[in-house]
Amino acid sequence: MYKGTLSKRVEVLIHIIYWFLMGYFTFVKNLVLAKNYLPDLFLSTYMIVFVLTFYFHYFVVMKLVFKSFQWKRFFAGVLVSYFFFTFLRWLFEQVITKIVFDKINYNNPTFFSYMEDNLHYSSMSIILSSLLWFVIYFIRLLEYNQIILEENKNTEIKFLKAQINPHFIFNTLNNIYSMVYFESDKSLTAIEKLSQIMRFTTYESQKEKIKLTDEIDYIKAYIELEQLRHQESTCIDFKVETENLSEEIPPYILSPLVENALKHGITSNVKPIVIALKLEDKKLNFKVINDIAVQKKDKLGGIGLDNLKKRLEIHYPQKHQIKLTNQNNQFTAELEIDLK
Description:
By secondary structure, the chain is α+β, with helices and mostly antiparallel strands. It has 8 helices and 7 strands. The strands form 2 sheets. The chain has a 5-stranded mixed beta sheet, with helices on one face. A two-stranded antiparallel ribbon has the order 1-3.
């Protein structure tokens, strides 16, 4: 059905196990209990017809039926397999055995009695063939659905990243434009920082996970760009408490909270934006606190934060908690992630 689902080798193995079990129970029931250790002629021919019908129904009928499934196609396929079984049994037990062993299984049967008798004998072959086909089909279907879910998940992550990157770059270019417009000597430094961030965006962001230290460096570069726009350079209080900077996290999982604070918060020496990162025993806590500028109505959302929530649901389902509170003109964003 799809590359990566149940392979032909595994399918063959399932068939081998199936026939081993069938042979074992047939031997116990028909041979041991009946004390007849060797199958007679017509039991042998029946087994041959059984196997041939089984695989005719498995490889031909079921494949054609499920190209475009309809119940009438399914029952028509069962009817075809029944006629196939009946014809083979007549060929083996009424023609071939007559020529080779001078024996026949049915002595002058009527057409209807012969068809009715084979309706019973053919049913087991057709039913068991259908059941085995359904089992393998649904195993493949489950695996295929899992692959589709995984691909959709990866596609959604890439889409969300694509939304984050232009959003950040748009804001940064606006900042640099202002610097250049007012002939600020900080514009060249800002361009250098933007170049550093673009390298991260181009290479690191394409990875599924990056080291925590890379995300921190990215945040610091982002902060420095923002600080270049302000007269005071100590308006950010960034604290990191961890002994393991090599712990891996998805890119852009922390920075949207910082971006939101810098965009909507007051930045000054008197009221600095507080950023605190703590990692202990695989539990990551990231908190950003900022006073809200009166002229900037802080939102508990936006493209960056909405995307962050979606990506957290994808990467850390049931293993994260994000709290966004707005009290007394102070906005607090706290993210907790269980990295285990």
